[in-house]
Write a structure and sequence with these properties.
The structure is a homodimer. Chain A contains six helices and three strands. Chain A starts with a helix and ends in a 6-residue tail after the last helix. At the A-B interface, helix 1, helix 2 and helix 6 of A face helix 1, helix 2 and helix 6 of B. The first copy, chain A, binds a DNA duplex through helix 5.
Chain lengths: ~120, ~120
DNA sequence: TGCCTAATTAGGCATTTAACTAAATAGATT
DNA sequence: AATCTATTTAGTTAAATGCCTAATTAGGCA
């Protein structure tokens, strides 16, 4: 279960446009590392991207992207795995699923409490 | 539907411990305005709280809490309705429900895409 | 060994944020 | 009208954030 500190970290991480877009890129950016595509000898991983590939999509310097990725990783919503001198990045589905579940539970509990209090369904 | 700017606003709003706790308080704090409890002539609303009631639970000055509430309202995750000289505050369930749905959809789409790509279920 | 490549760390700078106190606004009450 | 209550606005300050460039680390490869 995600504790409060962890949730706040996730919200903070996603509450910045650049990081939100990086996260989106990791999630939906095709899951390929352009460095691997350039190198015919390397089998392309369809699941992972890497730091400089992500940076290609943004107008910020590489260290800036690197720092943002670190924050997303510390929030545990992406994973970064080093293979050779590259770092392969994937979304952390489990954390996202949990977070979605938290919101769903929150809404359900609210409605249940409301029902218990009023003895009928929620009114607008 | 929540657009990107709106989602980022929500994450930013909840990505601060004080605002997160205020939000929690609005959601689960008993839904009562202590000012109404003190005044025998006023019927207690079991659903709403107000700015100074929330401020009672924190060690920050009232204007600080007021400013945080404004940010939560601008993120559309709480509502603030003026009645007399008080402002009644409630969680905005609809926005929270939508946000939860976004995460759920994100996870589902990811898994569907993965399945389409690999022709079978997700692997770890 | 020496040079690429990929990524992080360090240090600096401008902007934003989060807090405060004091003052202003708006609605109630006397 | 004068005052009290609830809240916001204004202005200040310290700390955090987000960006940059330059330097460093770490892993291949000639």
């Amino acid at each position: 279960m995600l504790d409060m500190k962890q949730k706040i970290k996730i919200f903070k991480a996603l509450g910045n446009e650049t990081r939100f877009l990086i996260f989106k890129n990791v999630f939906t950016g095709g899951y390929t590392c352009s460095l691997d595509k350039k190198d015919k000898n390397v089998k392309v991983s369809p699941l992972a991207t890497c730091v400089s590939t992500i940076a290609e999509h943004f107008d910020f310097a590489l260290p800036t992207i690197s720092k943002h990725l670190k924050e997303l990783r510390e929030a545990d919503i992406i994973t970064m795995e080093k293979k050779g001198n590259k770092i392969y990045i994937e979304p952390n589905i489990e954390t996202i699923r949990e977070l979605g579940g938290c919101f769903t539970t929150l809404v359900e509990n609210f409605e249940t409490n409301r029902e218990l209090f009023f003895g009928d369904v929620a009114v607008s």
